[in-house]
Write a structure and sequence with these properties.
The complex is a heterodimer of chains A (346) and B (163).
Chain A (H helix, E strand, L loop, with lengths): L4 H40 L15 H10 L11 H18 L9 E3 L2 E3 L9 H22 L3 H32 L4 H11 L3 H4 L1 H14 L24 H26 L21 H22 L5 H29 L1
Chain B lengths: L1 H8 L2 H15 L10 E3 L9 E3 L14 H5 L5 E7 L5 E9 L8 H5 L5 E3 L14 E2 L1 H4 L2 H6 L3 H6 L4 E3 L1
Classes of the chains: A mainly alpha (346), B alpha+beta (163).
């Protein structure tokens, strides 16, 4: 067994560094997002929001995390302790796992080595991302059931119904992207958008809008935040959680937002591609690393999440289900037909 | 009918809603950052009671105890004595903030206009004993000059007043 230096670097250090990045990037973005959300919602409501801890309050989420860390960890006597403890980990871990298929930027040639900005590449990457991130639903069910308390159970049931309803239009719209790129590999989808010279959002605006609505509902965010309905269910499925376990759910929710925004960027807005990838005189934009473009687009959609939260009132639960089953699913089915027809004719 | 349909299909109302909140992000904010910026209390604001002096700096209070008599909560404990120029002056003037309801009877009753509301609105202390104001605190000169927030201006904490 003799390893050269190159072997160690290319087969061990770089993949490990990528994995670390794939875990740390969402976590850092979660910290940033908690701050962005509080500041932006405050600004929309003509307030200022937290701006005392560090520069413009940037360390507020860290202060919150330290506070959560020192809180008492309360476990209900009647609760199912094993499931109760697994649920928050399941929610966060499943979403972090899905990040390994997201291309953070286009690949780069360094000497003879092709440095890629994704942890793993799979021919069915899209399906895997959707599938793995759906494990988070299990976390919600587990949390609601094992708490052995009425509000968490009701919140969990709402969450499950909502997630199952909105997974359908999401899956159907994702199919249209697959029709266009003829691949489920997220890297290939970005490549196809480069070759076609147009982002899929402008090619298929209906898919884009339906995907975004389903994405907001999928992450239990305003205006679809019924599983955590503050006014009627105390805090929904995580009512009985305290301390770091609650922190895990909190981080999981934000990581899910980042994951879905990443998917939106990758599927419909060209991932790490610069703006106007095919316009001749803007070709110098290709020299900026793809991660920069990915990050800008990601931040726009994360801001959009908060913007939506600051704008719209909440849906009633029956209206929420009606929206999914009477509007989004028929619309996405019709959309599939149209896209498939056009794809066949071209 | 057609307009309604178009509005629904192109999500016009939702976009209008987003533009409204976008407008509000650009508007100036209503928050006043308290320790640095302080809102000026209104004209007839009822802050802490203070004993005032006339223009020459002579105390106005003549220890007539009208305020003590009229006070519904019995906040005052006053003792007067004649000074060198044979005028009654208070030697003890305790005002108990705990009991005060800021009804303003003492201010109305005062014949020499000595006791008046200042615009000091920061009433909290860390000790209960500090809620009893002695004569020196009632004659807080710096506070009287600046009408309110004497200590903070002295310490240079407050940078701006907002009307």
């Amino acid at each position: 067994m003799n390893f050269t230096m190159d072997d160690i670097i290319f087969t061990f250090l770089i993949p490990v560094a990528k994995i670390l990045f794939g875990i740390l990037f969402p976590m850092i973005m979660v910290v940033v997002m908690v701050w962005v959300e509080r500041r932006v919602v405050a600004i929309i409501q003509e307030r200022l929001g937290p701006n005392r801890v560090g520069f413009q309050g940037i360390f507020q989420p860290i202060a919150d995390a330290i506070k959560l860390f020192f809180k008492e960890d309360i476990v209900q006597r009647q609760s199912d302790k094993l499931v109760f403890n697994i649920a928050p980990v399941l929610t966060l871990a499943s979403i972090l796992l899905a990040f390994c298929f997201i291309p953070f930027g286009s690949s780069m040639m360094i000497g003879s080595y092709n440095l890629t900005f994704w942890v793993a590449e799979s021919p069915v990457g899209l399906m895997l991302v959707l599938g793995i991130s759906s494990i988070a639903v299990l976390g919600i069910i587990f949390a609601g059931w094992s708490s052995n308390s009425k509000y968490p159970l009701m919140g969990a049931l709402r969450g499950v119904v909502q997630l199952l309803s909105y997974e359908i239009p999401m899956g159907l719209t994702v199919l249209t992207v697959v029709f266009m790129s003829k691949s489920m590999n997220l890297v290939d989808i970005v490549k196809t958008q480069n070759e076609m010279g147009i982002w899929f959002a402008f090619l298929m605006p209906v898919s884009c809008v339906v995907f975004w609505i389903a994405a907001v509902a999928d992450t239990n965010r305003c205006p679809f935040d019924l599983p955590e309905g503050e006014s009627e269910l105390v805090a929904g499925f995580h009512t009985e959680y305290s301390g770091l376990k609650f922190g895990y759910f909190y981080m999981g929710e934000y990581a899910h937002m980042i994951l879905v925004s990443s998917l939106m960027v990758t599927l419909f807005f060209g991932g790490g591609l610069p703006f106007f990838p095919n316009v001749g005189f803007l070709s110098f934009l290709h020299y900026i690393p793809g991660f920069f473009w990915y990050f800008i687009k990601l931040m726009f959609f994360l801001y959009f999440y908060v913007w939506i939260r600051g704008t719209y009132p909440r849906y009633r639960f029956d209206e929420l289900i009606k929206l999914a089953w009477k509007w989004l699913i028929p619309l996405s089915l019709a959309n599939i037909l149209v896209v498939a027809l056009i794809r066949m004719l071209i | 009918m057609i307009i309604k349909f178009i509005k629904k299909v192109f999500l016009i109302d939702l976009i209008i809603g987003l533009l409204v909140t976008l407008k509000y992000t650009l508007l100036p904010k209503a928050t006043i950052q308290y320790p640095e910026k302080v809102k000026q209390p209104s004209e007839r604001f009822r802050g802490l009671l203070r004993l005032y002096r006339n223009e020459e700096g002579k105390p106005l209070c003549i220890a007539c105890k009208m305020c003590q008599r009229t006070c519904p909560q019995n906040c005052f404990d006053i003792e007067g004595q004649k000074d060198e120029s044979n005028k009654m002056r208070p030697v003890k003037f305790d005002w108990i903030l705990e009991r005060c309801s800021f009804c303003g009877f003492c201010v109305e009753a005062c014949p020499s206009d000595a006791i008046r509301f200042s615009k000091e609105f920061r009433l909290s202390t860390l000790e209960r004993s500090k809620l009893i104001f002695g004569i020196s605190q009632m004659y807080n000169d710096y506070d009287v000059q600046n009408h309110f927030l004497g200590d903070s201006i002295k310490a240079g904490k407050i940078k701006e007043f907002i009307k």
